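Why do we care about 3D structure at all? Because function follows from shape, and shape follows, mostly, from sequence. That is the central idea of this module. The next example makes it concrete: a single protein chain, its amino acid sequence, and then its structure expressed as tokens.
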Amino acid sequence: MVPSLMLGNEAIALGLVEQGCRVVCAYPGTPSSEILASVRELRQRMNQDIYTEWSVNEKVAFEVALGASWSGLRSAVAMKQVGLNVASDPFFSAAYQGVKGGFIVISADDPGPSSSQTEQDSRMVGMTAKVPVLDPSTPEEARSFIAVAFALSERHQVPVLLRPTRMICHAVQDLQPNNTAIPKKPKVRFERNPGKWAATPRDRYRLHVDLNRKLEEIGNEFLVSPLNSNYAVEKAGEKRIGIIASGMVYHVARDVLKELNLDAGLLKLGTVFPMPKKLVADFIGDYDEVLVLEETDACIELQIPDRNKVRGRLDGTVPGAGELSPDVVTTVLQNLLGNSDGDPTINDALEALSESVDRNRPPPRPPRLCPGCSHRSAYYGIKREFRKRTLYPGDIGCYTLGVNLGAVDTCVDMGSGINLASGFYHAYKHGGQEKPIVASIGDSTLLHSGIPGLINAVTSGARFVLVILDNHTTAMTGFQPTPLNPEAHNGIDSGNVSIPELVKACGVRFVREADPYQHEEFRRVLKDAGRYTLEPEGGVAVVIAERPCRLHQPESVEPHPVLITDECDGCRYCLIAFECPALKLSVDESRVDLDETLCIDCGQCVDACHKGFIIPRSEERLWT
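And the structure:
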């Protein structure tokens, strides 16, 4: 069969389908989002019966998949590294309680980071939870590691963590289809065992002892695992350098050694926890110095008992943050060899490349909301209504970019905006002060982790305005469905959830819906909400800014073309206050022009010019 070009995430999905995984759950988050979407596509193409679910959050996804494993089915859950924080409670417990059908936890890390609030290392979480960790270095390895992970999970009845990084998830590689038969679906059966599945604290101690035994056995298996490889060198009379690497950094190290024309031993570890200690100790013993290259933390390095000859992140040889790109690894190796000047040819090439990149670098362009995005209109209305003295706790999603419009002051994690709003309210009240507070959260994030905070805010007596930005999808990560706007699960249409009814059930008495495109009406609702928070019987006021994402549902925007009149004086108010990418300063900076290639004719910018120089095109004749 002809090889197929696949993303790393698609390769992971292929591995899951090929190995007979029957339940796959996920919550979207870059760089993991394509995994579940690819499983859905492949199950149809390969005619496989697989249950898939975009869950409401990572904890829910983990526990749904875990239940399937306890019923005897191979299952998997996918998320990004900060999602593992949300799922950490069941993750730690599942290590103790164990599994029945093979269970893989896929946590995609984001060294850099490029689209995350942290660049944390999931391997460290796995090590703390005492869950075996596999670290693939290519899309093909990510796919093939699935088979190893399922077999390991079932042999020792433990969950297994597969940790691809962003460069693995989004790399592309030709993959040869697997000709072996896909395992048949086993009989589904949950066998009662209260001492394991409903373990008490006394049982948990026993399960912990058992887990330690399993890890020792797994570590011994990893000593001869084909997922690890040792490329030794014989070099007498000179300083002998060895490198231990895992993941994508292994390939970076190999390429840099070739470019620098250096001979060094290279140990690739695919089994990073429990680390095969004898294999690593024997490798270290063969060299004068050993450099550990890994992303993003010191997972391997911390497991090495004797680090006298070891150099890495812990002693500052390797930078403590950021990706280990070729230029970083080159600098690390040159410094380690006491040759900071390095090979003149290599340095000249790197310098020339750097100069070329700087010369051709486009002007800085900060991220902005898309043209026609209803979040822009919502934040524009919020800022005009509540002004600068208001506090604006925000949240995670497209709408975090409300910071550009001056309507988002904080962003911590999913659901934090509501809790921070409560904290701000009680802090100011404690200080005998009143402070207007307007929090914002997206529809998907509300369901992910906003509801408990909203219940807490109501019952604690907090007073603030909460704007729920409902754009009918999880837009930031690729338009995945939500329970508010679900798609049929495996052919079953089970209905959806109502935000107004859900919010009312949390105890909120002021609930209003408004279209942020209707500027005057939207601001009137915001004003009413603000007044309610100040009334004697007031409390949390919720405004639902409801309008579909224009990218997801283009038909939701009726065309209202505009023009900018010749009277425009280039005051830049619209550029700063409304910040639509379709509005741009002219070359001579004398006026604002409309970029017709970006404009979607939503007409929202008319209200953004207080001088009246942006008008509907239908009024052109009246104006002239």
